[in-house]
Amino acid sequence: MINKVYVALIHYPILKKDGSIVSTAVTNFDIHDISRTCRTYNVKNYFLVSNLPAQRKIVERVVEYWTKGFGSDYNPNRKDALDIFRIESYLEDVIEKIEKIEGIKPKIVFTSAKPRNNVVTFSELSQVIRRAEDPILILFGTGWGMPEEIREICDYDLEPIRAKSDFNHLSVRAAVAITLDRLIGEEICYNS
Amino acid sequence: MINKVYVALIHYPILKKDGSIVSTAVTNFDIHDISRTCRTYNVKNYFLVSNLPAQRKIVERVVEYWTKGFGSDYNPNRKDALDIFRIESYLEDVIEKIEKIEGIKPKIVFTSAKPRNNVVTFSELSQVIRRAEDPILILFGTGWGMPEEIREICDYDLEPIRAKSDFNHLSVRAAVAITLDRLIGEEICYNS
What we know:
Low-confidence stretches of chain A: none
Number of strands of chain A: 8
Oligomer: homodimer
CATH class of chain A: Alpha Beta
C-alpha cells in the first residue's frame, strides 16, 4: 500500500570490494539526507541497520543533535524529517517492527545497480504498491551492495536505474531519491 | 540539447535563514554525490560555485584525494565521476566557461522548493532539452535557496518537486537526482 511504504538502509551484511561480508560505516548524510527524502515521499519509517553498537551510538548522537540539541531550533524541518527515522541492529528486527505495526509481514524489495535477471520494473512495482494490501519494505545497500543471502529472502528484485548508461554508480542517497520518485512521484498519501 | 546539459550548485550568493545573503559551506557530499549523479545522467560538466578561496582549496583537496590520492585506486568509479567536476568562483564564470565550450550562452534554469508563479513543468522542460539547440544550465541552491537576483537572469523557472506534500524539504543532493531523472530518465545521450 502506498501509505505503508518503509525504507531500510543496510550497513550489515554488506559486500566489500573483494566479495567478503562487512559492516560499512554510517555517514551523517545517510541519516538526514535519506530521512528528508523519505519524509517528503510520505514513507512511514526509515530504518538504518547497523550491527555495530559503536556505530549505533554515533547515529543516536547525530539524531539527538537535530531533534533535541541546537539543530532542533536552528533547523526544525530536520527534526520533522527525523521523526520517521529508526535505528535497528539487524534486518530481522526491521521486519519484526513492521509486522508489529501493521499486523502483517511486509513484502520486501531488493535494489541494486548490478544487472540481474527476473527483475520487476519500476512501473510494475509502482502498481503493486498502489494495489496490494501489504506493507512494502524497500532495501538499499551501502558499500559494494547487499549479498545474495538478502536477495533470496526478498519478494521483488527491482530493476537498476540507468542500467544502459556507460556509468551507473549513483550514491545510495541519490538512488533512494530517484526510486521513491519513480514509485510514488507526485502522489500524496498520508500514513495510516 | 540533451547532450549539452550542465549543472551548477551555488554556494554564493545564497539566502540565509533571516533573508540576508551569505556563502554556504561546501560538504564532501556536494562534491562526490552530485558528481556521481551528473555523470550517471551524462551531464557534460558539474560546476560547484563558491566565492571563498579557502572553501575552493578544501574542494580541490577532496577532489585530489579521489582523482590522484588513495581514493583513485580504491574507488576508480569516483575518479571517473569527478572528471566532469569543475569549481568556479562566481556564476558568471560558469556561464562564460559554457559559452567558451559551446560557442553560445546556455539557457539557464532556476530551481527551488518554494511555490512560485509562472513556472515551467518538468515535462515542458524535458521537451525543451530535447528540442532546443542551446546548451542548458540547471542551477541548484544551498542554504535557504538562491536569491531573486539569480532568478531574474534565468530563462526558465522550474516547478518544485512535491509542492503538494505536507513536507518538501529535500536535500539538494536528492533534488539534483530527482530533477535529472525526471528530465532525462533512461534516455542515453553522449556528450558532443
